[in-house]
Design a protein that fits this description.
- The complex is a heterodimer.
- By secondary structure, chain A is of the alpha+beta class.
- Chain A has a single domain, classed as Ribosomal Protein S5, domain 2 (2-Layer Sandwich), CATH 3.30.230.
- Helix content of chain A is about 25%, strand content about 35%.
- In chain A, a hairpin with a 4-residue loop joins strand 11 and strand 12.
- Chain A is elongated, with a radius of gyration of 22 Å.
- The termini of chain A are far apart.
- By secondary structure, chain B is an alpha+beta fold.
- Chain B has one domain: GHMP Kinase, N-terminal domain (Ribosomal Protein S5, domain 2), CATH 3.30.230.
- Helix content of chain B is about 30%, strand content about 30%.
- In chain B, the strands form two sheets. Chain B has a five-stranded mixed sheet. In chain B, strands 7-6-8-9 form a four-stranded antiparallel sheet, sandwiched between helices.
- In chain B, strand 2 and strand 3 form a beta hairpin.
- In chain B, helix 1 packs across helix 2.
- In chain B, about 50% of the residues are buried.
- Chain B: It comes from Coemansia furcata.
- Chain B: This is Exosome non-catalytic core subunit rrp46.
């Protein structure tokens, strides 16, 4: 107890009982509880080929957020409408393991929306005709499973980077179609990669408490978010996706500034992938 | 280059709407832009399930059903887009511990479905008498491979587009910034800005259309009330 009527407690206690006020104290002083600046991203760590049983895999760490992407390849019959194309399906899993906010059972709305969004982005990554083994008969079907192990905010960025890195790590055995038997034989010793057309570089910005725009928000900041903005840039420096959700208003000028910041971030991500 | 349906680049398709068609919903709207047609129904404020009710405000729930096929994650994506756009523009604190349910049924999808869903929902909320901060209007633009930008593209134009851009604005605050943005494809910042401006103008026209539609309904009701 301090002065009369004044209560003092440890910083951790304050954070627990008044999480919003706790964050506001930092933000109003133009800083963040993690010590980062508003436009500063967390350190990115990428480990390619982490899972030996998958044809391609990558682990991505963004601060305390960890996601793993594994790509499994199977042979299947191509779609009748696109006989020379294979498939790339993506799935994002946000299990109860990664955060207390998720319940076991059917995938949460958040996970389904993330899966769908990453699927839409994945069309920019590889040319599906490269997955063809024999036109109309056999093609590779790649299923990319993105599993979040630790959810500390900005899972979408980590998931996109993990998908790009896992596709670059992908090694497909050389497959040959035998028209006499209708069987595909794969030579595991002769593997080759699939060309990634253009890398994607995501950057997420979050409007916290309707006032402050911060880059790469962590879980505590995301809880106070009123809007979020995802900017994805491809290897050519062209914009691929600008996606703003949430009813907090981010002005046109701020969106332009965020795109500039995303270009700076692009260089950092490219360095981490190499 | 002329468009397949001979529209000007900045011309919207013919807008059409009828309010209050569903008699069991608290408010509903059938909204169409050319062949794209959406029905939105609003139920609320109704009792919320115990586990989802919020002590200080109403919960907003959105369901989107496509015209054909089983529900997919695409529908979830549209639901999340609509919910995040409307969640805080509905004055939810006036109805604590209740639920406002928005059900959107796609009747025919011929491009610009996301913006049609948002426009239909605004009108359905007004029809249901749910208090709103503002009217929300949306519009879609597409940049074609020959660098022309067209407003309110059909599915045919979207399939042949290099990028598509959907913006939603709150009425009277266009200069503050967009409520919802979804730009996809491959584009530059200049193209984005151009589409932003074109969609701003388009949403103003949609808003004027909505105003006429609501005025029409109010005068009709006043006449019935007087008779």
């Amino acid at each position: 107890m301090g002065e009369t009527g004044q209560v003092t407690f440890a910083m951790q206690t304050f954070e627990r009982i008044h999480p919003v006020e706790f964050q506001r104290r930092f933000l109003s002083q133009s800083t963040r509880h993690s010590g980062r600046e508003f436009m500063q991203f967390r350190t990115l760590q990428i480990i390619k080929g982490a899972i030996s049983t998958a044809q391609g895999s990558a682990t991505v760490r963004l601060g305390n957020t960890t996601v793993v992407c594994g790509i499994k390849a199977e042979v299947c019959e191509p779609d009748v409408k696109r006989p020379t194309s294979g498939y790339l399906t993506t799935n994002v899993e946000l299990s109860p393991m990664c955060s207390a906010r998720f319940r076991p059972g059917a995938p949460s709305d958040e996970a389904q929306v993330a899966s769908e969004h990453i699927h839409r982005l994945s069309t920019h990554l590889i040319d599906l005709t490269h997955l063809c083994i024999e036109s109309g008969r056999a093609a590779w079907s790649l299923s990319a499973d993105i599993v979040c192990l630790k959810h500390d905010g900005n899972v979408l960025d980590a998931a996109v980077i993990a998908l790009v890195a896992a596709l670059e790590d992908l090694q497909l055995p050389r497959a040959e179609f035998d028209s006499a038997t209708g069987m595909v034989s794969a030579e595991r010793t002769m593997c080759s990669g699939v060309e990634v057309k253009k890398r994607l570089f995501p950057a997420t910005f979050t409007l916290v408490d309707d006032v402050y725009v911060v880059a790469d928000a962590d879980d505590a900041e995301e809880q106070m978010a009123t809007a979020s903005l995802l900017v994805v840039i491809n290897g050519d420096g062209k914009l691929v996706n600008v996606w703003k959700r949430g009813s907090g208003v981010i002005s046109k000028e701020t969106i332009e500034q965020c795109v500039q910041a995303a270009r700076v971030r692009m260089v950092e991500i490219a360095k981490a992938i190499e | 280059m002329s468009r397949p349906d001979r529209r000007e680049a900045s011309q919207l398709r013919a807008l059409n709407c009828s309010l209050g068609q569903l008699n069991r919903a608290d408010g509903s709207t059938q909204f169409s832009a050319g062949n794209t047609s959406v029905v939105s129904g609003v139920y609320g404020p109704v009792e919320a399930k115990v586990y989802e009710e919020k002590l200080d405000r109403a919960v907003v729930e959105v369901k989107f059903r496509a015209d054909i096929g089983a529900p997919t994650t695409k529908d979830k994506w549209v639901e999340s887009a609509v919910r995040s756009t409307f969640e805080r523009e509905i004055l939810a604190h006036l109805h604590p511990r209740t639920l406002v349910q928005i059900v959107i049924q796609l009747r025919e999808g011929d491009g610009s479905v996301d913006s049609a869903a948002i426009n239909a929902t605004t009108l359905a909320l007004v029809d249901a008498g749910i208090p709103l901060k503002c009217m929300i209007t949306a519009a879609t633009c597409a940049v074609l491979f020959d660098d022309t930008t067209v407003v309110d593209p059909t599915q045919e134009e979207i399939d042949a587009a290099r990028s598509t851009h959907t913006f939603a604005f709150a009425s009277g605050s266009n200069d503050r910034g967009p409520l919802y943005v979804d730009s996809r494809g491959e584009f530059t910042m200049d193209e984005y800005s151009h589409c932003y401006d074109m969609c701003t103008l388009a949403t103003e026209r949609v808003l004027a259309f909505m105003r006429t539609a609501i005025e029409g309904k109010v005068t009709k009701e006043a006449k019935i009330g007087a008779a």
